[in-house]
Write a structure and sequence with these properties.
The chain is of the alpha+beta class. The chain has helices at 7-21, 44-68, 112-125, 129-137, 144-163, 174-185, 192-199, 203-214, 218-236, 241-247, 253-262; strands at 4-5, 24-28, 34-38, 75-78, 84-91, 96-105, 167-168. The longest helix is centred in the first third of the chain and has 25 residues, at 44-68.
Length: 263
């Protein structure tokens, strides 16, 4: 586990969140490995499904985690068992540090679509359909607005965990080293080969890491860093456009203007 988690303080927040909302909540690594959760027990339906299809549960979470990792907004979705879950990324300026997740929530009051979903699960994984249906029928129906409200609170909690250093990056993490290098060298002649040489990794490794943690390629991130700095200089300095272009790594002012407009 490359991230550093202050588990006693985090566990207190997870417990408070559950006491407030009644929703099961957990904290996960960027790879969707569980770090802590409250309560530890799964709902009856999930316990049945996970007895045979635990790997499929994580596969579903991973697919939606990849969509959520590119921003700071929460992402709500239906898991492979048809229950609603929400992910909120925990992100520093340097890297994706993990996720907070609420889940195992029933939102469909009619059960029609869910019944078909449970039949498919029962056939695929050799589960008892009647047991799945009984477990689902026993679940309370949660209004979508209530889940959205809880997800907004989850998003605030994610920012708080990062701000209070309850989740912190290990400085040896590749995304952190990439961000540190970029902050110091964005104005120079930066190429993918030069980045890889400086960080001691291959192109595929660096590209995959940047896509996973920032949702963009290394060179796209270089451009973003340069444009952010250019925006600051435009607001706070009296430098000409040509000077700002030169100071932020653009050799051609015309190309700088084109990229700036596109961003």
């Amino acid at each position: 586990m490359a991230q550093k988690f202050d588990l006693p303080r985090i566990q207190a927040i997870l417990t408070d969140f559950y006491q407030l909302t009644g929703f099961r909540v957990g904290i996960y690594t960027p790879e969707l490995e569980m770090v802590a959760e409250y309560p530890q027990e799964h709902c009856a339906l999930c316990a049945l499904v996970r007895s045979r299809a635990r790997g499929q549960c994580r596969k579903s979470d991973m697919a939606h985690g990849q969509l959520a990792c590119t921003g700071s907004e929460f992402s709500s979705y239906a898991c492979h068992a048809g229950l609603t879950e929400s992910l909120a990324p925990i992100r520093s300026e340097r890297a994706l540090l993990g996720y907070l997740m609420i889940g195992q929530l029933r939102t469909d009051p009619t059960c029609a679509a869910q019944k078909s979903q449970l039949k498919r699960l029962a056939r695929k994984w050799g589960l008892d359909f009647s047991a799945l249906q009984s477990a689902y029928d026993a679940m309370p129906v949660v209004p979508a607005k209530q889940i959205t409200a809880a997800a907004h609170i989850l998003q605030v909690c994610a920012a708080h965990l990062c701000a209070e250093n309850m989740v912190a990056p290990d400085r040896q993490l590749l995304p952190v080293r990439f961000s540190d290098y970029l902050a110091q060298n964005y104005a120079g002649h930066v190429t993918l080969d030069k980045l890889c040489a400086a960080l001691g990794v291959g192109k595929s490794t660096l590209t995959a890491s940047c896509q996973a943690h920032f949702g963009a390629s290394p060179m796209e991130l270089v451009t973003r860093q340069r444009i952010r700095r250019a925006q600051t200089l435009l607001r706070q300095s009296s430098l000409s456009v040509a000077q700002i272009a030169e100071n932020t790594g653009f050799a051609d002012p015309n190309y700088f203007a084109k990229v700036f407009r596109r961003q």
